[in-house]
Amino acid sequence: MKVTKLVSTCDIKDCPTIYATDRGTFLVQGETPTGHGLQIPAHETLVEIPMELLQKAVRDNLI
Question: Least packed by Cβ within 10 Å: which of 5, 8, 46, 59?
Answer without folding.
Answer: 59
